[in-house]
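Journal club prep — side note

Before the paper discussion, L.F. wants everyone to see what a predicted structure for a comparable chain looks like in token form. Sequence:
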Amino acid sequence: MNNKVNYTLVGFVVLLGLVSMLGFTYWMLKPTKAEDTQKYTIYFNESVLGLNLDAPVKYKGIKVGKVTRLRIDPNNSEQVEVTVEILKTTPIKEDTVAKLTAQGITGLSYINLSEGNNKTRALRVKKGQKYPVIKSGPSFFAHVEQSLGSVSELLVLTLGRTNELLNDENQKHFRKLLKKSAQVMAKINSTLDATTIQHLQNSAKNLDLLTLELDKSIPNINKFIDNSIIWENKINDSFLSIKKTYVEMGIIMENMAKSFLHVENNVEDVTVQSLPLLNTTMVEMQQTLINLTELIHQYERSPSDILFKKEKVKRGPGEK
């Protein structure tokens, strides 16, 4: 009799525990009146593999809702329409973005809402929409898949071009090129023996010495150019002086010719007037010839005076 009472009591306790657990679960899942929910629609352009009904919707890591419906968008078969219930206290903005996120290694997924700008307006239902539509963004796996697709395309393209490059005809050309390169290298090795290398080194040293000598000669070359300019100026002055002298001689001879024309009329006047003039002319001509002679003798004694310096005149004893 006592054993039957004990079993009944145990059964009652177990049943009460199950009811309490179910009640607690319902209380946890069902929002209170102060925390009423709002339905939203999300359209995903990628696969929603791992996303199930009642999958959590999280905002900054906090569960704020769940998935209530999954279906293919009747207006666009390339999209998946997901309906979610989210607490009204959740700040869903116009720039809020929903992304699929994997839950560890379980293979399940949940919807993660990225926070919007605090100054952005709250998301509201638009004309033609049953519920406000939250924008979706590609998940991490979508990015990886796109990257792998691009890499695969590039790899296939690279392999195709490599096959085109390594065809039979190109391989023959490569063999010829390698053969020619080997022959050239062999000739270079045979040519560049120790003696040739020594000659090249000596040539390089001589070239360095020549460069140094050239650097040293540059100041003398500049000096030579400067002296050449001075010499040219002196020559020009000398020629101008000679030209002036000959012009004066021409004028004098012209005057003498005019004077001789009047000899028949007045011999005495011509003689008196022409002799001093003729004497002066002869003296000037003599002086000019003396100057020219000295200039010629000076350049004959020391031609380098033209470019570099003047000859030092050797003075006699007692001369200063």
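L.F.'s comment for the group: Residues 224-306 form one domain. Keep this in mind when we get to the figures.
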